[in-house]
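Before the break, one more example. Copy the sequence into your notebook; we will annotate it together after we see the structure.
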Amino acid sequence: AVRSFARTWAAELKGRSIRVNALSPGTIDTPGIDGLVPSQEEADQLKSYMASTIPMGRIGRPDEVANAALFLASDQSSFITGIELFVDGGRNQI
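Here is what the structure looks like once it is written out:
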């Protein structure tokens, strides 16, 4: 649904020079992951399992998602609109 919004809004807002893109993060190492299980040992095991399902072999960091968002907000992406950018270590591609 978010991808559809980005594509539709990109087409509708192009006349106002507004670019619209969607950012889709994968598994990111946040305190929320630790809160899914009762102990740190189990959290480490969960993170290890999650990392094993990602082609890059690790889970992402919050700053990696932030850098992708900054790129899309910058002039460096001035010719990019209507996309869904996956920041997921390649997980969506397998």
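The mean pLDDT is 96. The chain has four helices and two strands. Try to locate both features in your own notes.
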